[in-house]
Each structure stands twice: as structure tokens, then as C-alpha cells.
Amino acid sequence: MQQKGIGYANVGEAIDSFMLIKEVTKGVTSGGKPFLTLILRDATGEIDAKLWDATKEDEALFTPEKIIKVSGEINQFRGKPQLKILAVRPSQPTDDVHVSDFVEKAPVNKDALQEKLTEAIFEMKNPTLQRIVRAFIKKYQEDLLVYPAATKNHHEYVSGLAHHIVSMLAIARELHQLYPDLNRDLLYAGIILHDLGKLKELSGMVTTSYTIEGKLLGHIPMMIEEIGIMARELQVEEKEEVLILQHMILSHHGKAEWGSPKPPLVREAEVLHLIDLMDAKLNMLNRALDKTKPGEFTERMFAMDNRAFYKPLFEE
Amino acid sequence: MQQKGIGYANVGEAIDSFMLIKEVTKGVTSGGKPFLTLILRDATGEIDAKLWDATKEDEALFTPEKIIKVSGEINQFRGKPQLKILAVRPSQPTDDVHVSDFVEKAPVNKDALQEKLTEAIFEMKNPTLQRIVRAFIKKYQEDLLVYPAATKNHHEYVSGLAHHIVSMLAIARELHQLYPDLNRDLLYAGIILHDLGKLKELSGMVTTSYTIEGKLLGHIPMMIEEIGIMARELQVEEKEEVLILQHMILSHHGKAEWGSPKPPLVREAEVLHLIDLMDAKLNMLNRALDKTKPGEFTERMFAMDNRAFYKPLFEE
Amino acid sequence: MQQKGIGYANVGEAIDSFMLIKEVTKGVTSGGKPFLTLILRDATGEIDAKLWDATKEDEALFTPEKIIKVSGEINQFRGKPQLKILAVRPSQPTDDVHVSDFVEKAPVNKDALQEKLTEAIFEMKNPTLQRIVRAFIKKYQEDLLVYPAATKNHHEYVSGLAHHIVSMLAIARELHQLYPDLNRDLLYAGIILHDLGKLKELSGMVTTSYTIEGKLLGHIPMMIEEIGIMARELQVEEKEEVLILQHMILSHHGKAEWGSPKPPLVREAEVLHLIDLMDAKLNMLNRALDKTKPGEFTERMFAMDNRAFYKPLFEE
Amino acid sequence: MQQKGIGYANVGEAIDSFMLIKEVTKGVTSGGKPFLTLILRDATGEIDAKLWDATKEDEALFTPEKIIKVSGEINQFRGKPQLKILAVRPSQPTDDVHVSDFVEKAPVNKDALQEKLTEAIFEMKNPTLQRIVRAFIKKYQEDLLVYPAATKNHHEYVSGLAHHIVSMLAIARELHQLYPDLNRDLLYAGIILHDLGKLKELSGMVTTSYTIEGKLLGHIPMMIEEIGIMARELQVEEKEEVLILQHMILSHHGKAEWGSPKPPLVREAEVLHLIDLMDAKLNMLNRALDKTKPGEFTERMFAMDNRAFYKPLFEE
Amino acid sequence: MQQKGIGYANVGEAIDSFMLIKEVTKGVTSGGKPFLTLILRDATGEIDAKLWDATKEDEALFTPEKIIKVSGEINQFRGKPQLKILAVRPSQPTDDVHVSDFVEKAPVNKDALQEKLTEAIFEMKNPTLQRIVRAFIKKYQEDLLVYPAATKNHHEYVSGLAHHIVSMLAIARELHQLYPDLNRDLLYAGIILHDLGKLKELSGMVTTSYTIEGKLLGHIPMMIEEIGIMARELQVEEKEEVLILQHMILSHHGKAEWGSPKPPLVREAEVLHLIDLMDAKLNMLNRALDKTKPGEFTERMFAMDNRAFYKPLFEE
Amino acid sequence: MQQKGIGYANVGEAIDSFMLIKEVTKGVTSGGKPFLTLILRDATGEIDAKLWDATKEDEALFTPEKIIKVSGEINQFRGKPQLKILAVRPSQPTDDVHVSDFVEKAPVNKDALQEKLTEAIFEMKNPTLQRIVRAFIKKYQEDLLVYPAATKNHHEYVSGLAHHIVSMLAIARELHQLYPDLNRDLLYAGIILHDLGKLKELSGMVTTSYTIEGKLLGHIPMMIEEIGIMARELQVEEKEEVLILQHMILSHHGKAEWGSPKPPLVREAEVLHLIDLMDAKLNMLNRALDKTKPGEFTERMFAMDNRAFYKPLFEE
């Protein structure tokens, strides 16, 4: 199969490929016949699929996290594509396909991300900030390199969080060149730690949801607490840097309505908020436009105030 | 002089009493003559005062935190009362007046407040919540019994915080009787701790302002961190009670716009928010109506959405 | 059948019980076969049900307000439970089931509610307020004891209005003990009359909807008019109490956006608003949490700003 | 004196004319000398005036509602004109000046307004609406022809309310011609009664303020009650016209935030709201532009969303 | 068949008439059978229709813009009427039906609209304004007389734009009589040009959608540019009238949130905005009430803040 | 005098320096003596000054745009510094001071700004965009290099607009390196033209105010028109680049409430908006923090949502 992947498939196309089952729901037609609704995914996106006249065996075979070989055709249902399954079987060892082939991943690999992070920490000169950052990197190293940055909207893929951090560090480095008054160490520390609370707010790397703690506290207050505890362990809790760093994390959503009880009140906190916005928006826009033809609009993007963006023709 | 105090004085009245200097500003008249603008206070309120033709000696004598004997008359200036000082001298040891006589205090004394707190803790049955509350009471005992609950608006007097807590505990006790599904221990713990972060957010008991930490983090995130650290010290950090208690503190302002990144998502958190509102509003209303004549309106109250309240005539 | 009732039923369960038909809609499957969609209810809740292959006889038999014996199984449809009817028959006299068995009722009976109301009126000392309240109770006695307080959200069951009033009176009694400045008679009168306009705004006790008058005027202005007319009948229209009482009713929703053209401008009006909120919210929360397992969240509650509430595990 | 009046006076001009004292405040200069601040008015506007070195006799002579002969010059003070009084004396009988000369009046006289009202009522065909309108006109005839429509912003002059009603009737008559589906009787009745509650909301015709009843209830709910009582007196309370008329009054501010608990839900209610807006805005704009030179902007107008309007040059 | 048209059809009625196909979507039933969903329309409205068991021939025959003879019955589907097609055939030349019979048209014909426009321009006296208006009428004459004023909500029918303009001119003429300070020429010019940008914002007269230019710029900025270019062509770009006219177009939506970067700052701009509102609202209300029975409410109207309007009974 | 300038002066300091008169107002003391209020400025800031006992000669000598030699002392007046003038004289030719010494200027000189602009245009590859940009630069070259970017808030100094453009171009260049999907030519063209409408919206380079055209249309619609006219002159009006460029200018304020009738709907439009925010905010923050001591807060900054920013101590 030479398809680009399900994220690029159009209505009317035939499909014949391996996909991962993300969710399964049983249904009954008005004629009383059972069917399965599956959400299938590969590394490029997701699609709703219908398996009509499903048997008890089908129900037992096709469960979440399984990989299947599926052929069918893509119809339109209520304005969205839907896959009608014509043939399906579970994957076999000889197929040589793996769950990790079916999840979206950052375009940069883990080693490269790790290296970029190390490089940034190496550039830092303020010992207090550097020690705190190092301690957190060490504590969360494993998860940090694989977690998504969010459950949806932007960087919602494997290693998304690290990818987001590394892109933000690159912007910060350039802004510091253009506006040398900026304190680069503060920016670096704020960028690396700003979303680390998500490692405890989100349940995991693949089928990501919110933990109870995440729902009741949220990643921002959880991270304020973590920095406080870490600063005590490192015996730097009296340093002003700790307070400023906590403030940067606390305020990085920019406004109370967006989850920051204090707005940015330190220059680098304001800049952290703007860099976060810039990278998150470009990540969403670039990926949506990549799936859009010149002269057309993307789908409406919830996290971009529900706007649909136009891809100009003249660039072709 | 048998006046009720400056908070009850009317335009046109003569004044002859001791007062505390809160602030002093130097000015020069258009004729080039120096004068002093003083903010004076006693236990019932504050007034702006003018000392015309002030000498260098006056400047040296009349400084903040000093007590003075002052006589003068109350004029109207831009719609607000202003004291024109006719005679003034510093207080002397033989006057037997003390700074504590000139600050507003809770209508219940420290011992009674302490007793009510102890009583509530004694009623608690959940050991985790009780231990955390006890530990905080011990840590902050001294400040807790003297701090105001706020710099202005409600309970903004000595022991105001403890007075607010004790009133809220009384409401909680009755609500628990009426709605026995409520978890009283959670309510008590939430009430006692909800504003404890203010002990670090506010600079002190008398001329209260915000600390840097208070401005950059605010009392709510500071308290989340404190509970986290305290729970570790008591080795109960894995208990669900800790998470729920942190959530109650985090959400007690009710809405993101009002400083709570999460709204109440636990029943007792919602009730804590409502009891807090109820007691704060009644404190403001009762004190404002106490200074208002029947058939008239109070001054506009900023923290009550800028409303002026009417005091009915028929109650006389 | 030992089920707790349809409000507690889970997907996958079999159902075999009596239920009341609330609504019926005819439909046709894509294969052209007729079916009926019924909304069924018992005293604990409602469910959508499907009767496939419905005959003309079925259509004639199964109409709103009829009681049926139904067996079937609960499926999931678009994330909500749906009952697939396997067998159904109309109830018969020998079944000894009655419409009143299938509507939700206040947990306190009419006589007890009546008694609590009488008790509160007896406590009142202000003759004007007492006479007005007595006259309204007499005028609306019958409906007052059976109407719901609303069509949905809180106290939306038989005798819900009286239940809401009686709970609010209990809170008011306690608050008056804790804050003796409050005028208890005003609070009692405001509480008893605040929602009485709903008796004309809502169409009835069971399948409640809005009257034309209710839609065009709303219960608040209707009640202002009623109090004015009643005061004339009792020849007390010049008393200030009447004005204050009208103001309390007018302002009890708290804000213009919520239907009160004037916000509370009298202390007891503000307290009435807060007690109303407190009781309405606790009614909603207690009933929703009662149907939720520890460690889980309730459904999103529209009238609680669309929040889902968590039921802690540690209370078990 | 050939001045157009104080509303048209410019900074730098000398003044020598009769004016009415609206308010007086005593003050003391920093040099200890007493002075009077007077708000003076004539039929075209108001001005702040200063009488320096005021004697006890001055204080006794120059009190509100007195007419004075004053000469002085207009200075600028904090961006607003201020009259420095050089000479002043009370008016004498021989001056032949009267309070009514110094208040702003509608540009149409009472008799003409009365005639237009009678004409409109005569056009009405629906007996219920006509009887209600007639009864109210009879009840309030005296005040209706002299009251202002508001304390400020639009039609805030003697006979302003009747002037506003008569202008709105003229618009309604034309709209009914252009859109014959409109029910003219409903529109006329709604227009005549829509602001009649202001006769009880405002304290009087000249130095107008809000009554207690006006502050606690507002003219809209007061008028709903009045219509209800009047309908009973006329024994038409069961007619649908009464309900629709009450709805029109209730909704004529258009939105809950603007004081209408129900938005317009009947076509003529919506049109009443729009006609009210149209006439109020044109009244404000025409009067403000009348005092503005071509090529310049009016002062900011609070009731026009704080906009300043431009008067084009090309129209000259 | 003597039906009034599909806009007046009720659930349960049989249909047998010619209709125009607006849209077609293919679907597959759960049993795997193909069907067609058609949106059909006549001059009075639209309806969803289902053609079950559709063949390949059906798909080829029934395409958008085709006229068909259809019989069937109207069912209810999710609360909205849906036509079940029992028999259908394409129209034939002998049927003598035309696309123009199936689109909604203004109640006034093109010639009459043209005449009214000419009349208004003839009344204008300001040469600059008159020349600009004439030039635009000439440029857009053809489209201006057939375009709708919008894709939905108000005047969304053939010649809707011209109908809207002509109605607004009639209101303006009357307002100018009542308030002679108004500059009639400015009003006329503003009214005629205010929505002319829609001729480029909307794709056409029948199945109207937004052009790319319409989506990226919107009709208001497009018209500002057009007036600027036209003024240059007429060599009047230095006249103040051009600036005022551009301002009127720019501000005619009234508020920034509604698409006007500047609010009205000239009297006639404010009046243009109000007349636009008045005519658009009356157009929507009259058409909705025309389809509503006395004593009932219209459907909720999105562009009227989602209100449903009541049609009084007493008018019958 | 070795002062850093008036922007850095503290209360209590003596002043002896040359300053430029920005505004003059005459006043009269309560004792009847004339005085002058002057707003004086140098290259670092402004101050209010009082010249007591001003003579007619003073009035004639000290007029706006004059340079004076002034000595005096800085007092506090209503919380803001005020200069009491002790001695003053007009500057003389021998003083060798010039108006241009007393206005704030960009930290980069005109030639350098010009060069940076030329460099960016040279990098552009799209001929349509490049030609349009070149044509505008040529048309406005003189003003573009000296105008401020705003009347207040950010880049409100001589050459402020060009400085803002050049800083934004530098950010765009770096972002294009990091996110190569971005169309650099579009970004460059959007940045250079985005605020060019201000050259017609603002009255001039020094005492800047809004033109009538600026008030009635605003710089955004004015620039849309200008681009349209320029595109016609260059005969590229049919190119899609023109539409996209107009959209970028139109949407660069981000939201309708902020003056953009369309939000950004093209990727580069969104990025233009973000770069504009980033540079404007950093300009404001850097300049405010430069005047603030470590450990203190800046004044509240209106254009930063009225926040006061903290300058950390640890950076010292």
C-alpha cells in the first residue's frame, strides 16, 4: 500500500492497511443486528470505522490496543469520513507490525531531544536555577522524553512535551540575542519546567487522559508544590530564584481565566507565555496546513478560537 | 469628650481626642507655605487631617505610628470629611494611651477565639485531617490569632482572620446538622486552613500590605505548597484526604477569574466557598449598616459590587 | 424485582418493572419499519426506550401518562443508556400501581412540610409581614404543597417548592442565631414568598412546562404585582415592609443577568439570595452524589456551571 | 445681554446675567479664607462658579433655588469651564425673573403635547388598550406633562417625558404605514405607558433624584404592578392585551443587563424598544451637536457608550 | 395540489408537488443499502428528504439544481420535519416549471425596486454624494437588483438586497421629516452603499456562499476600498463627504465585536445603524410570524438572540 | 549638571537644566494670583511644573515648543512628582540647545534603520510582494523614518515606527529559520506595511495626536484602501498576494474587539500578530524596567493590562 496514511485519506478511497484499535463500542441496528464501531489509528491520524454484522468472535478479537489488517472504503457520514470495513483480521507475528508504528511521534527522535536539553542546561550560568532544572530532569527523565504535551490540540504525540520544550528553547535563544536584557537562564529554566506537572496530570503516553489529581489540582499548582519541595531538598528554598521560577510556572497561561491565578509580573514570565503561545500555535497550524490543499481552508481548530485557516494558492 | 469615635463623626462636629498617625505627607500651598496632610485613626475608623502652617518641628514630631492629642473641626472636602487641626500635641506617658487602643479589633477576644478553634479540632474524627490541622495551628499559632483576614473589605482588623474562621466554623456546624451528608471534618479542615496562606501573603498585623511572595504567588498557591510539605513531614502525603484538602483550598474562591484555577469539584469545596462568601458579606454589611441611619443608604461598598445598601425605617 | 429504580440502573443490566410513559414519538427505520421511542420514568429517574417493530395496536396502547410493565435490557447509545424493550404490556388494575408511584417526591411528606411552614409563620412578630405571608399561604395552599420548585435542576419533584422553602427556613433560623442583627421576619417572609410566582409560571405538578404568562413575564415580576395587589386587599400598601418585601423578591436572583432587575440592596435580600443558592446547590449535589460511586465523578451538571463533582474514596 | 445662554459660553468670555442657584458648597482656602462653590444654571445649561472671600451674609443670601444677578469671567479649571464671580446680588421683584425661566424645557409646549397625546389615543381601536391608556393619562395627567424623561442623558428637561412619548408616537405612526403588519394600538399603548413608572421613580420635576421606591424596585416593575392594579379596577385583567402590554413595558430595555428581566418576545415589544432607542439617541445627538462647531467633536457622551461625535464641515 | 408550499407544510401531510434539488448526499443504511438525502426547496422554504433504496440511475438523475416531481409524506425526525419520498421523477419540458419558480423572491419586483432607487437618488442634492451613488448603481446595477442581502437570517432571497435598501430608504425619508436636522443625502448614500460589498462577498444569487475574498476581508473593508477607488475615478477623493461616507459604511454594524472597527461617530452613521437593525429585524419577524399560528411561538431565531416570538391571540 | 534626565529624577532632588515646554495652562490661586502650569520634557521623560506668581511677561515668554533653562526642586503632588520652578529663563542661541535634543528617539539611528529595511526587501523573492513594499517605502520614506509607532505605550518616540519594524523583521528572520514552512516574504511584507496607515492616522512626529481621518476610519481600513489603490497602480490587483497582504494588515490586531474585523486566517497573519505583540511588549517592559530598581515594581502599565512588573534582586 502506498497511501500516506489515514490522516491524508479522502472520501471515496479504498483502504487496505494495518491499523491500531483505539476504542470499540458495541451497537445494535434498528433491525436488531449487532455491529461494532471502532476508532482506528495509524501514525498520521484517526478514523471512525463500522464493522457491520459483527459476531461474538469479532467482539472478542477486536479490542483496544490490538493491531488489525483492514480493508474497506471511506464514506462520508454527517460530514465526516467513516471507514466501512469490508475485511478485517488481527495482525500476526509474521506481519512484523508494532504498536509504536501506529502512534504519532515527534519529528525529532528521543536522542536528539535529550541532546538539545543537555545543551541548554549546559549554557545556564546561574547555579541555583541550573541545579533545580538538573534535579527535575533527572527525576522525570524517562517520562519527559516520551510524554505528549497535551491530550489534544498541540504536540499531542509521543515525545510531544520534549519536542515542545526544545522548540521553545530555540526561540528563547534567538530572542535573547535580539533583546540581550532578557535573563536567558530564567527563560531556559521556565521553559523546561513549565509543563512538567503534566507528567502527573496526564495518565500516560498513549491513550492519554487526566488523573484525579490532575482534575482536582491541575498541572500548574502541582508544579508549584513540586518546585517548593525540590528547593527544600536542594536547600535553596530561600533563594529569590525559586520564587521567580515558581511565579513563571504559575503565570505561564497568562490570565486567571486560562488557569494562571497570577498574570506574568516578571519580564521573563511574560516572554515565557508568549513563546509558549508561539510554538503551540505554529505546531497546530503547520500540521493542519500540511493536510490541506492550496486554495482551501483547514478544518475549524478548536484551540485556535475555532478558526479555519486558508492555505494560499500563490505559494505553489 | 464622649464621642463614639472617628468612624461615627459627622461633618460640622468638633473633635478633641487622641488619635494614631497612620500616614504623613508634606505639601506646600500655592502661597508657598508648608502644611502636613495626616491620616489619623482610632479603633472605629480613619480621617484625613490638615495641619496648616506646619513648622520644621511639627514635621519632626508628627510621624507615623505616633499617638497625638488633637482638637479641630470636621469639614467637607470633595464630598468626604476632612479634619482641620486647630491644636495638636504628642501624647505623653501620663496620658496612658497605647497603639493597641487605636486599631480596630475583632469583637471577640483572642482567648475566646483560641478556645473555639480548639473545640472544633476536638470534634474532628478523621485522624489525617485532624493531624494536618493541628500541625498548622501549632506552626502559625501566634500570627493566626492576631492577623486580619484581609487588607480591606472584610475582617480587616486585628484578629480578623481568626474571627472569620470561627464564624465560618459555626455556620458549618449548623449546616452539617441540616444536611448530614456533608463531611464535617473536611469542612472544618478547609475552613481553618483556607486563608492561612495570608499569614505569608500579608506583611503584618497593623499597617498591612502585600509581601513580594504574596504579589507573585498569592496565598492560594502558597498554601497548596505548604500543605504538600506538611503532609510529607507528617508522612501522610499519599492519603486522599491531602489531595481533597488541597483542592478545597485551591478552589475556595470559586472561579478562575477570582483566583481559583479549579472551581470546586467536591461538595464540601463548594460549601466552603459559600460559607466564606456568607460570612465575609455579613461582616461587611453589619459593620456598614451599624454606621448608617435608618431610612438611609450606606456608602458604596466596593467588595459588594459597589452597591449601597438601604437600612429600612420600619425596624426602629 | 429488587432494583433500586431506573435512576440507578447501569448499562448491561436487565430491567423488569413497572414504569410511567412520559413521552412517545413515532419513527421509521431505514428499512421502512415503524418503531416507538418512549421516555419512561419511575420515582428515581428517566430513560429513553425503543420499541422496535411497533404495531398500530402498540401505538394506541402506549400513550403518555400510561403505566406499563416492561422488560428489556439497557444498552449504550451515543454515550447515554437506552432501554431496548423486549416485552411490554399495559398495567392492569390487579397490578395495584398508581401514577403517584412513578414521580419523584420530596423526602418529607406534605403534612410535615405544612407543619414546618405553620411553625415559621407562628415565630414571626411583625404583623404586616405575618399577615401578608398568611394571606398568600391561604391563597395558594393547595398548589404550594405539591408543586416542584423548578422544571429541572433542583427540587424538580412533587412538593419540591415546599421542601425548598422549609430547608431555607431552617438555614435562616440558624443564621439568625449566629448573626442576631438579621431581621428574621423579613427573611422568613422573603423565603416563603420568593418563588411563589412559580405556581403561575409553571403549568402544573407533573409534566411541568412554562405558561404563556410565565414566558412573557416570569415569576419575579408576577409576584411583585401579586404582593402589590395583596397589600391593597389587606390595606397595608403604605407600609415600608411591603416595599422591602417586594424588593427582596425582585432581587433574589442576585444580578440583572439572572433575572433580577435590581441587585439585593437590603441586607436580608442579600442573605435570602445566598440561602437560596446554598439550598438549591446542596439539593442538586446530594442527589447527584447519591447516584455516584466513591472514586468517580457525577455527570456534568448544567446548573452547577457544567461541572462534574468528585466523590472521595476515603469516606467509605 | 445678548448671550445665547451659559450652555453656549466659552472660556474667556465675560458673563453678566441672571442665573438660578442649583447647589451651594462651602469651602476654605489653604490660607484659611472661606469661599462658596455654586452650581448655577439657566435654561441652556450649568456652570461651576466660585465666590471668593464669601461672608456670612453671602452664605445666608445665596442658597439653592434662589435667582441671582451675577457678573464674572469664565476660566478653565481642570479642563472644564468655571465662572469666577466678580459681582453678585439676589434678584429683586422688579427684575421680573422667575424660576421657570432657568430650567430647560421641551421645545414643544404643554398644550401641544397634550393635543398630540389625545390625537393618538383617539386613533386607537382596541377598546381594552384604549381604556387602560385613558385611565393612566387621567391618573397622571398633571405630572405626565411636566416631568423629565430621566435625570440625565436624554429628555432630561421639563416636559421631557411627554416630549419623548410624542416623538415616539410619530415614529410609530410612520412605521405602521411602512410595515402594516404592526399592531398600531399595541405600539401606541406601549409607548405612552413605557416610562410612566418614572413619575414614581423620580422625585420631581426640577432637581430630580431617585425615590427610595425607585431605587429598590425601579420604574419597570413598579409599572407592571400598576398595570395589574389598573386592569383589575377596569375589570379587564383577564384580557390577553393586559399581559401583552405588561410584557412590552417589562421588556422595553431590551436585555436583562439593561433592566428587562425578559427580552422582547412579541414583535411590537421589539419595535417599542427600537423606537425608544432611536428617539432617545436622536435627542441626545441633536442637542450635543447643536452646541458643537462644524469640524469638531462633541464632548464624550456617557449614554452613547462614551463616544464623542464629529460634526462634518461640508454641511455648513 | 393546492398546498401553500413546503414552508407551510405540517408533519403528517402528504406532499405531491414540484421541487428544486438544492443538495444531495449519498448514504448507506446499516443493512448496507444505499439511499439519498436531498435538500428540496420551493419558493416558500426547504425540507430534508430521504430517497430509500436509491439506484445508480437515481444518483445520476437527481442532482443539484434539478427540478423534480415528488410525492411522499412528512415525518418527524429529531424534532424536525423530513420528507419520505414515495415517488419521484425529473420534471419534463411539458411540466412548464422553471428554477426561478422555486427560489424565494422579494415581495416587490425588480422594476419597482429600480424605480424606488432612482427616485431616492433624484431627491439627493449634494453633488458629491449623488455622483458616487450613481456611479456605484451603474457599476453593480445587474447584481444589485437580484442579490440577496445575506445567506440567511434576513432578506436572504432573490432581490433581497435591493428590497432591504428600498425599505430602509423609506424609513430614512420619514425620519428626516420628523428630525429635520438629519442630513438626508448622507443617509440615502449610506443606505444604498452600506451592504454593496456583499456583491463581492457572496458567491451568487441562488446557492449563496462566501467568496475567499469575503472570508478574508469581509464586505465592510472591501467597500471602504471600493469607495476610495471610485472617489479617485470621480476625482472627489479630497471631499469630506467621501471620508464621512466611508465612515458610515465602516461603522454600520455598530460595534467592533460585530465587525465595525469604529463605532458610529457621526449622527447619520448612528441612524444608519439603527435603520439597518429596524428593517432587518422586522423582515425576520414578519416572515416568521406569518408562518406561526396565533397563541403560539415562532421557532427560535438565531439572529434575534435565539428568541422565539409569541403571536398574540387577541389580534385574530 | 550630571543628571541622567528628568525621566530618572526622584522627589526631593534639585533640578537645573534645559527643558522643552510641551504644554502651558494658566491658572489662578484661591488668593487670586496667576500661575502657570507647564509640562516640560527632555529626551528621557516629562514632568509637571508650576511657575507661581507668573507675570504677563512670563505668559508671553513661556509658550509651547520653547526651550528654557530652569532650576527648581521636585515635590510630590497627589502621588506624582511635580517641579516647583525657582528660576527660569528662555534659552539663547549661545546655549546651543535644539528641539531635537529634547525628544525621545529610537536607540538606533535613521541610517541604520534605513539600511535594515533595504536589506530585508533585498531578501524578498516574490516579485509582487517586493514591488508593493518598495512602492510604499518610496511613497512614505521620509515620514516612515521619523514617525513614532504610537502616541503612547510602545515605541512612542521619534523613529519609533521604523525601530518597531526593524525589530520585528529580526524576529521574523529567526522564526523562519526555526519554522521553515513560514513564508518569509509574506511575513516581511506584512511587517513593513502593518502600521504604515499610522502615518496618516497620526498628526505628526512630535506632539502626536489623531487626525480626523484617523479617528473616523483608523489606520487599518485606511491601509487596506491604500494597498488596493497601490496594487492598481502597479497593475497587480488580481494577484492573490494582494488579497493575502490586505488580510494580514486587516487581521494584525488579532480580534474584532481590538480593531481587526477579521481574525488572522492565514498562518503568516497569525505569526505577524504574535511578533507584533512580542516586540511591542518587550519595548514597553525593557524601558520601564530600565527605570526601576531591583527589588521594586514598575509603575502600573496601562497597555500591559495595568500590571506592575517586578525586577528581581538576584540579577544584580
Automatic annotation (TrEMBL), chains A, B, C, D, E, F:
Protein's UniProt keywords contain Cytoplasm: no
Domain HD span(s) in chain numbering: 164-281
InterPro entries (UniProt xref): HD/PDEase_dom, HD_domain, NA-bd_OB-fold, NA-bd_OB_tRNA, YhaM_exoribonuc/phosphodiest
CDD domains according to UniProt: HDc (cd00077), YhaM_OBF_like (cd04492)
Pfam families listed in its UniProt record: HD (PF01966), tRNA_anti-codon (PF01336)
Family annotation (PROSITE patterns): HD
Keyword entries, A-Z: Hydrolase
Name recorded for this polypeptide: 3'-5' exoribonuclease YhaM
Lineage: Bacteria, Bacillati, Bacillota, Bacilli, Bacillales
